[in-house]
Automatic annotation (TrEMBL):
Residues 521-603 form the SbsA Ig-like domain. Signal peptide: none annotated. This is DUF2334 domain-containing protein. Pfam families: Big_5, DUF2334, Ig_Rha78A_N. GO terms for biological process: carbohydrate metabolic process. Keywords: Signal. It comes from the Bacteria.
Amino acid sequence: MSGASFPPSSATAPLRQGRAPVRALFALAAWLCLALAAPSSGLCAGKALVLYDNEGTWGWIGEMYSQHMANLLTHFDLEVDRKSSASYQAGDLENYQATFYLGAVYGAALPAALLGDVLATAKPVCWMGYNLDKIAWGATSADFQAKTGFSFIGLDTTGTWPEVRYGSGSFTRVSVSGTYVGQTSVVDAGKASVLAECVNGAAQTPYIIRGGNFCYVADMPFSYASETDRYLAFADALHDVLGVAHTGSHTAILRIEDVHPAVDAGMLRAIADYLHSENVPFVVSVIPEYDDPLGAYNKGVAQHILWTDAPDTLDALRYMTTKGGQIIQHGYTHQYSTVKNPDKGTTADDWEFFRVRKIGGVQTFIGPVPEDSAAWARGRVLTGKRMLHELGLNPVAWLTPHYLASQVDYQEFAKVYGPSLDRGVYFATDTAGKLQFQEQIAPYVIPRDVYGTRRIPETCAHVNPPDVLPSTLIERARVNLNVRDGWAGMYFHWYLDLAYLRELIPGIKALGYQYTSLPVPLDLMWSAPLDGSAGQAVDGQITLTFTESVDPATVTAATVAINGAAPALIDCSGNTVTLTPAGSLPLDSAVTVTLSKAITAQGTGYTLDHDLTVGFLTAAPQAQLAAAPASPSNQTALSLAVTGSGLTHYAYRLDGGAWVQDQAMGAPLELSGLTEGSHTLDLLGRDNAGHAQATPTSYTWTVDLTPPAAPVIDPLNPAPTVTTPKPKLAWGASEGAASYEVQVARSQDFAAPLLQATVSGDTSFTPGTGQRLPAIGRYFWRVRAVDAAGNASAWAASGFSYASVPIGPLYPLLGGQ
C-alpha cells in the first residue's frame, strides 16, 4: 500500500448539490462586530499544533484537512499553527497545549524526533488516520502499549464498517472499497477507553480510542463527511480530548434563501407571517441586484432589476424585518458577467465568484473567474452592501453565492463582514498544479477559520422536494443533538410551498432546538471614497466620514495607524475621522489607514479590522459646462448644466462681477437679463474633500438682438404668370443674413403654407424633388432673412399666377415637367 491514501476529498465527499450547489466561505473577520455566542471553556486560551503529511501525489489532502482541523480547534479558544510532519523539530510538542497529527499519506516518512516526543510528552496528542504502525509496532511497541493501554492491529481495508456509535448516538460512515479503519485493541482497561466504535452488525472495533494523553482516530474523519457522518462524533469528542466542558445547548438558525428584486412579494409576506406566528427569528439572504443578461426568464430579452424598480417586493422585504427577519448579503448579483455559469446566466441560478461550465452535460468547476482579484471581489461586495444601506437595510452577515469563491475573494469578503452562514470551502494544490477543494460542515460555531471568518453552522442543508423533504432536515438535526453544543442550521427557498416550512419548524422545535437571530454588528459604513478613489486629501489632512449600524452605540474614538506607523487614539465624534499623515501628501498617491479599535460613548471597546486605502486627487477639481453657450445667440436667458468629476459645489460670476458662491452640483446655473454684446462666464469648482479650483473655467459668447434687413424681391423671378409648377423665386441679398426662410401659400395670411424651405448660401429657391405647385391658380410667396444669432427680418412678399400652357404650332409644350 505504499503511496496509498484514502480517496481524494474532491472525489469522495461531493460538494453540495441542488439549487445552491457548491458552497464556499467568505473570510477574515472584518469591519466591526459583536461577539456571537462565544463558547465558555474550561481551557485557558492557548495554542495547538496541527501536523500533516504533505508528500507525494496525495500530500495535498493533508494540507487541506489540516485547515479543517484548525477550524474546529478555534471553537476551543485555541490558536493554531499548522506545519508538515516532515518539518517537525525535536521539542516542538512542548510549545503547544495539544498536538494533532493527520496521517493523510500512507507510509509517510515521520521524523524520529516526532515519534520520540509523542511517547515522551504528557500533553494531549491526537493521531488520525495512517502511520500509527510507526510508533505502535517495532522497537517502540512495548512503550506505546505501556503509555496508552491499547495496541494497533493494522488497517482493515475491506470497507465493511458502515456505522459509528458514540455515546447514545448512531452516525453514518461511508464504507466502500478503498476506505479503511485502523484497528486497535484494549490491552489495559485501566488506561484505555473507547470513546466511539465502528459497527457492522454484531462486529465492533474502536473508532476513537484514548489512553492517557494519547487519542487515536481510526480514519481521517474529514473524508466523506456528511450531515449525519461520524465526523460529528469526532467534533464532539474534541471536548473530551481537550478537557473542555462547554455548556450543553442546541441552537437553530433559519435562512430564507435567494431573495432578490424579482421574487414574489406575497410569498415573502406569507413566510414572515408564519414564522412570526411561531416566534421564530430568521435571516433573509438578500441579493442586491437582479440580472438576466441572456433573457432566460424574459423571452430572450435582457432584464436588469434593482430593488427600487420593485417597490412592492421591497416593501415585503422591509415587512419581513418587522416580523423577526434580519438581512444578510448574498453576493452582489449571484451570477457572472453575461454568460452561462453554467446554467442560465441569471441571478440566483449561477455562480458569481467561480467559473463553472457544463462539459458533456457534467457540471465542471474551472477555477476563479478571469478578472478575479482582491480589488474586484471587494468592489462587488462593497457595491452590494452600499446598495442595501441606501435602502435602509442593515446586512448583519455575508453569504457567498453557491458557497464558492477563490481564496483571495474570501479574504476580501472578511474585510467587509465578520460572520458567515455558509459552509467553508478550503483549498490545496496537488502535484499537477490543479486546485483541489472541499467544504466543511461546522457542527458548532467556529470563531475564526483559516480565512478569519466567524462561521455560523449550516448543518442540515435545505428542503429540496421531492428528493430532500423536511423530514430529512429534521433527522439531520436529530443526529446533531449528539454534539453537546451542536447547531441545526438550515435554509428554505422563498418559492417553495409554505406547507414544507410548516412541517419543518415544529419538527426542529420538538427536538429541543431554540431558533436564534444574529447579533447586530456595530458596523461602520464609510461614505468617503475609499480604495484609491480620488478626493480625500486637503491641507495635509484626510477626513473620513462614517455611519453606524447600531444606535445608540456612538463611536467617539478609534485607534488608528497611518502607513504602518504606531497606532494612536483619535477623536471620532461627529462621525468623522480626521487624520494627518506624516510628510507631504502629493497628488496621485495613496495612504493606508488601519483602524484597530473603536470606543463608544458607553465606554465599550470593539475590535476593528479595517484596512482602508485612501486615494488622493489625480487632478485638481475643475467645473465646466456640459455645453457652452451658443455664440452668437439671441437668448437673453440661459439654463446651463455644470459638471465636474468629484465636485460637490461650484461658484460662478458673470462679466467680472461678484462671485455667486456655494451652488450645489446638480442645480442648473440660471442666467437672465442678458443684454446685447459680449458676455463672459467664469466657473470655480470644489470637491468633496474641500479642494477649490484655482483658475476659473471661462466661457465667452455674444448676444445679438438686431435682426438683418428684409430682402428685396426680384420682380422677374417669378414672372407675374408662370406656366411651370416649379417656378424660381429670387430676391436680393440682405447684409448679415446667414440663411433665408421661404414660404408659398394660396392665401395672403400664409396660414397654411404649401411650400416652405430654409435656404443657405443662395438668394433663390426652386421647388425640388417632391415639391410643386398643386394646381392652376393664384399664389403668394414671401421671404425673410435670418442671422447667425437667430434674429429674423420682416417678411418681403409678392404674388404670381400659375396658368395652363398654350397649345399650337407657335406654342410648343413649355411646361408640365
